[in-house]
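okkk here we go again. third time trying to get the adenosine-5'-triphosphate bound version out, last two times i messed up the smiles copy paste (missing a bracket lol). double checked this time i swear
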Amino acid sequence: MMKGSLKSAMEEIASAIKANKDYLTDLDREIGDADHGINMARGFDAVMAKLNSAEPADLSSGLRQVALTLISTVGGASGPLYGTAFLRAGKTVRQGDMLNPKLALSMFRAAVDGVEERGKAEEGDKTMVDALEPAYRAFEDTLKSGGDFPECLEAARDAAKKGVEYTKTIPAKKGRASYLGERSIGHQDPGATSVWIILNALLQYAQKIHKEQ
Amino acid sequence: MVGLVIVSHSEKIAEGVRDLAKQIAGEAVRIEAAGGVADHKIGTDALRIEHAIRLADTGDGAVVLLDLGSAVLSTETALEFLDDARRGRVLIADAPLVEGTMTAAICASTGASLKEVVSAAKEACNANKL
Ligand SMILES: Nc1ncnc2c1ncn2[C@@H]1O[C@H](COP(=O)(O)OP(=O)(O)OP(=O)(O)O)[C@@H](O)[C@H]1O
Ligand SMILES: [Mg+2]
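finally!!
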């Protein structure tokens, strides 16, 4: 069992998104409509406002609140995609469950499945899936070989980063960037980049709570 | 009577298309606008769409007409929040937003079925302007 709270994990994500708001928006300017950072910052600001106004009763209802807030405030494709991810992650948690690495693995799988079901993208389509799938596999492999929670997240973050690099080499098949076709090659996908930023933020969070134990 | 939901990234577009359709089809057809996100910003909001679907569907179903990109993802997310019975009578029209809404609204006003209304919307894909 791990200490910490959903609120402090979300705080870490929200401040990382805020710090990278312009960076994500600039990436989206190249192959999209220049709003990914603005959308994500608006969404996670609203998440923090929600969590600050009332601390959720438990992890599962907290994740549902996060999901509903993202779905209704982000505005772009990343809203329903990340929203569905948090919604499905929350559904794998039973009432009263505390976070542990094994539960995190099943939450992670459900989240990735949710994104894929919602957006119908596969690896190689130049979307957030290109960061999520390798990150999930790295998390799973590290957990299986006995890694602790921060080690799992570190492996996931590094794999996501490789996925981000990979998106530079391929044309977009889903989302706005797909209108550019081959011209999208050479540019990295904004959504894959925000996945990497979020995983890095979760790693920072995990390292903090690990130290406190 | 089948209702309509207009989903757009722009609140003004959704409301404008709704007003136009109401003028053509009359007040009997329920047409709900679900455009933009809070503070009149550009974007789509699944909860706003879900609410509009609940208003538009009075038992005979609802057809959703939409613009691009995340409009589809947000509408499909909204459907996830509906119970099975209602979800079963909501269809997304693969049709141009303005023309599709007009043909769908006229069709709905005749008391047509859900399937008929959604295919009326689709027929707008073939409408020539010149
Ligand atoms: N179908 C999809 N499946 C998975 N990821 C997707 C899909 N469509 C878009 N994305 C991701 O969303 C990111 C863009 O998010 P953003 O918040 O900028 O939405 P947007 O494309 O501007 O939305 P909108 O369609 O409303 O204009 C992309 O970089 C990509 O990673
Ligand atoms: Mg964008």
